[in-house]
Amino acid sequence: MAGSGVFEGIKEGEVFKYYTDGEWKNSTSGKSVAIINPTTRTTQYKVQACTQEEVNKVIESSKIAQKQWAKTPLWKRAELLHKAAAILKEHKAPIAECLVKEIAKPAKDSVTEVVRSGDLISYCAEEGVRILGEGKFLVSDSFPGNERTKYCLTSKIPLGVVLAIPPFNYPVNLAVSKIGPALIAGNSLVLKPPTQGAVACLHMVHCFHLAGFPKGLISCVTGKGSEIGDFLTMHPGVNCISFTGGDTGIAISKKAGMVPLQMELGGKDACIVLEDADLDLAAANIIKGGFSYSGQRCTAVKVVLVMESVADTLVEKVNAKLAKLKVGPPEEDCDITPVVSESSANFIEGLAKDAKTKGATFCQEYKREGNLIWPVLLDHVRPDMRIAWEEPFGPIIPVIRINSVEEGIHHCNASNFGLQGCVFTKDINKAILISDAMETGTVQINSAPARGPDHFPFQGLKDSGIGSQGITNSINMMTKVKSTVINLPTPSYTMG
After folding, report:
1. N or C terminus: fewer CB in 10 A for the chain?
2. CA distances from 35 to 194, 210, 282, 334 (A)
3. Could you tell me how far CA 303 lies from the centroid of its own chain?
4. Please, are residues 18 and 50 in contact by the beta-carbon 8 Å criterion?
5. Which residues of 398-409 are buried (b: 16+ CB within 10 A; e: fewer)?
6. Looking at 2-103, which runs of residues are DSSP E strands?
7. Burial of 487 (0-12, 13-18, 19+ CB in 10 A)
8. Taking a C-beta distance cutoff of 8 angstroms, is the pair 74, 232 a contact?
9. CA–CA separation, 441 vs 444, rounded Å?
10. CB count, 10 Å around CB of 410?
11. What are phi and psi of 419, to 5 degrees?
12. Cis previous bond, 453, omega within 30
């Protein structure tokens, strides 16, 4: 059970503690935040509601710990990360159990997330040693008018305190994708987990604790966004913010000030299907891309733009596969599980109702029980429907029939999002030209949009984000170039 064995010390009574200075502590606020199980819609866990004063102390100790950590040899940092990765994988079962209960992620996908996170940490350690182990050497006479009297050595140095804010849908994986690069680069890290997913994050942080990282280097503060959210993101002691989530990111970027930002926000990932596409492949990927984890992924297929001549066949194939999806609780490894909250379910329902009143064809009957929404494909969706543009974050996919490739590209580019997209065709020339024309951070050819593998660059254009992720990009983003210039005396005679 979660909280037992090696995780014994991370909770007291009913409430999980927060982590700072290498210790698990209770907040002085005496208050807690409830985490509602999306399946039962009852309180599953409680976490500390930290105060602003506690945040100040956390950042202060992070600063002190970071100064020492920056002097720690690179191989030593890597060694500790490898250790944390092994411990995380060893304890995958209790962490996965938290994911099932907090975010209704199917059991097998929850285990996969933890294992993938361990792999990410290990890769980070290796990549960090490679990237940070070398610098540059420049000589002055390569620029006009200069003698060979200056040598410039450049290296990458840490930024300081990195604030990591992951989202509910991949709380462990998207936390370690920030923690790993930050730590190998010599930074300290403050984690503010999402409320749904906080307990899984606390368990994950305990694995870093068990690995023996220095005190104060990693902290995990829980609490109400209204109380400590802005306080954290605008804190003068924070030197970098890595955020994954929705609209909140736009607000953070406006308030954050002069710190490097790494943001991955929403998406309305378009799937363009041409006449010559392998329709069985396209249908399988629309199902996988649109309905895995009930569509609660920023890289989910969120709109299908299909050529009219093959639309009927594609819709038929998608519907046949959709009928086989298992709907129910995450404990039973169902394909479609309850969405994360009642407000999320209400939002999805609002999009469905709007589409219905405006004449979309519902290929399945719309059905909802509590937070559980049965998967539905909407055909004949038009641009005047909200579902054509808004991100549902649920098991509902709109199909828009198009008469030309240009029409599909235009719809994709008219969106304020630009995270990923995909195109299905057997013509590689067309695929590359369409990819060039799509204003998205990544285009997948003949496959559904996806975040991984985790060392691939991952970025969004427009409202989908700032900067680029992926292990290598994150390490580079969480460091700064430092130059040391050696000035040689001007030779008064020719040597040699």
Report:
1. C
2. 10, 25, 38, 22
3. 21
4. yes
5. bbbbbeebebbb
6. 11-12, 15-16, 18-20, 23-25, 32-36, 43-48
7. exposed
8. no
9. 10
10. 13
11. -85, -75
12. yes
Mind listing the pLDDT tens digit of every residue in the chain (496 residues)?
A: 444 589 999 999 999 999 999 999 999 999 999 999 999 999 999 999 999 999 999 999 999 999 999 999 999 999 999 999 999 999 999 999 999 999 999 999 999 999 999 999 999 999 999 999 999 999 999 999 999 999 999 999 999 999 999 999 999 999 999 999 999 999 999 999 999 999 999 999 999 999 999 999 999 999 999 999 999 999 999 999 999 999 899 999 999 999 999 999 999 999 999 999 999 999 999 999 999 999 999 999 999 999 999 999 999 999 999 999 999 999 999 999 999 999 999 999 999 999 999 999 999 999 999 999 999 999 999 999 999 999 999 999 999 999 999 999 999 999 999 999 999 999 999 999 999 999 999 999 999 999 989 999 999 999 999 999 999 999 999 999 999 999 999 877 665 6
Question: What are 300's two structure tokens?
Answer: 């989910």
Using an 8 Å Cβ cutoff, are 238 and 232 in contact? Answer: yes
Strands lying side by side in the sheet with 15-16: 11-12, 15-16, 43-48, 32-36
Any bridge partners for residue 430, and if so which? none
Beta-carbon count within 10 A of 316 CB: 12
What are the phi and psi torsion angles at 369 (to 5°)? Answer: -130, 110
Structure tokens at 421: 């997209």
Q: Return the active site residues.
A: 264
Domain annotation for the chain: domains and CATH numbers: 5-265 (3.40.605.10), 270-445 (3.40.309.10)
